[in-house]
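Fill in residues.
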C-alpha cells in the first residue's frame, strides 16, 4: 500500500495528494507520470507527477474528479492508501538554459507544469507564464507560478479573471524574445497554443494525455500520430513537438469510450448515494 500522507482541495473537484513512495520520489523528474490502481478492482490510470520530495520520500499528484476512478481516488482520506503505483514513467522534460520560455498551463495540469517550470527557472531561464482555467475559482498554483515568473498572465474561458482568449499570446511572441514554449493542459488549449506559435517557428512542447493502460509500450492504447508516424505516448512521450501532432486524431481517440465512461461514473455516483452503501 502507498500511504496518502496529505490531502488538500485546491479548487472545486481538484485534489492534491502527497503519497509516500520513496522509490518513485528518488527517481522522479519533471514531466514524468505514474500509473495507479486504487484497489484490486480498480482500473489503471495515469497522473503526472506534480512534485517529488526526496527527504520525505513523497510524490505529489494533483487531479480533477472527472469520472469513476478519479472520484474514487478523491474519496480516499489522509492515512489511507493506494494499492499499486508504478513509476516514474515516460521521458522527463528537457531541462536546460534555453533563454526566455513561455509556459502556458491550463486547468489541473498547471500543477505538474509548475514542477517543470521551476526546474527550467532553476536552470537559468526567464519565464513568461500564462495560467488558465474555465473560471477564476478553478485557477490553481497562482502564487507559486507568479513567484518564478518574470511576466505572469491569467486567462479564463468566461472572462471572470484576466484575458478571455489566448490571442494575446501573439503580442508576447511578436517581441521575438521567446526561444521555446512549454504547454500542459486540456488538448484543445495545447492545440490552440501550437497553432498560434507555428507561424513564429518557435518550438512548442506539449504533454499529450491519451488513454493509457499498461504505460510500458505494450498495449498500443496511447498511440498518437506525430508527423505521420505512430508513436506511443507512454514510452516515446509524453512530451512532443506540438507542431507535429495530429490533434484531430488525438481528440477523437480520447472520446472513444465516452458513453461507457459516463455510464460507469453515473453508476458509481448512484452506488455511493445508495442508503445500503451509506450504512455499510
Ligand atoms: C500521461 C498522462 C498524465 C495525466 N496526468 C493527469 C494529471 O496529472 N491530473 C489529472 O487530473 N489527470 C491526468 N491525466 C488524465 C487522467 O488519467 C484521467 O482523467 C483519468 O484516467 C480519468 O479516469 P476516470 O475513471 O476518473 O474518468 P473516465 O470517465 O474514465 O474518463 C474521463 C476522461 O479521462 C480520460 N481517460 C479515461 N481513462 C483514461 C486512462 N486510462 N488514461 C488516460 N486518460 C484516460 C478520457 O479522455 C476520458 O474521456 C493524465 C493522463 C495521461 C495519459
Ligand atoms: S499505454 Fe499501452 S502502449 Fe502506452
Amino acid at each position: 500500500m502507498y500511504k496518502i500522507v496529505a490531502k488538500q482541495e485546491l479548487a472545486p473537484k481538484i485534489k492534491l495528494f502527497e503519497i509516500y513512495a520513496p522509490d518513485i520520489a528518488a527517481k522522479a523528474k519533471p514531466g514524468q507520470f505514474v500509473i495507479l490502481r486504487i484497489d484490486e478492482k480498480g482500473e489503471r490510470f495515469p497522473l503526472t507527477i506534480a512534485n517529488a520530495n526526496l527527504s520525505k520520500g513523497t510524490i505529489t499528484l494533483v487531479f480533477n474528479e472527472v469520472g469513476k476512478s478519479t472520484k474514487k481516488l478523491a474519496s480516499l482520506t489522509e492515512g489511507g492508501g493506494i494499492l499499486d503505483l508504478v513509476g516514474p514513467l515516460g521521458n522527463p522534460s528537457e531541462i536546460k538554459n534555453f533563454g526566455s520560455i513561455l509556459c502556458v498551463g491550463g486547468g489541473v495540469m498547471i500543477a505538474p507544469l509548475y514542477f517543470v517550470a521551476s526546474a527550467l527557472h532553476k536552470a537559468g531561464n526567464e519565464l513568461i507564464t500564462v495560467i488558465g482555467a474555465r473560471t477564476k475559482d478553478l485557477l490553481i498554483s497562482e502564487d507559486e507560478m507568479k513567484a518564478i515568473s518574470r511576466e505572469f498572465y491569467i486567462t479564463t474561458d468566461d472572462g471572470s479573471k484576466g484575458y478571455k482568449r489566448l490571442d494575446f499570446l501573439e503580442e508576447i511572441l511578436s517581441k521575438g524574445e521567446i526561444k521555446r514554449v512549454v504547454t500542459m493542459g486540456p488538448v484543445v488549449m495545447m492545440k490552440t497554443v501550437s497553432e498560434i506559435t507555428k507561424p513564429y517557428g518557435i518550438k512548442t512542447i506539449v504533454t499529450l494525455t491519451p488513454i493509457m493502460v499498461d504505460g510500458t509500450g505494450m498495449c498500443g492504447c496511447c498511440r498518437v500520430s506525430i508527423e505521420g508516424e505512430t508513436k506511443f505516448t507512454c514510452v516515446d512521450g509524453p512530451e512532443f513537438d506540438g507542431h507535429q501532432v495530429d490533434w484531430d486524431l488525438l481528440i477523437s481517440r480520447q472520446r472513444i469510450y465516452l458513453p461507457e465512461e459516463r455510464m460507469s461514473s453515473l453508476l458509481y455516483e448512484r452506488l455511493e448515494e445508495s442508503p445500503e452503501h451509506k450504512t455499510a
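The chain has ten helices and 15 strands.
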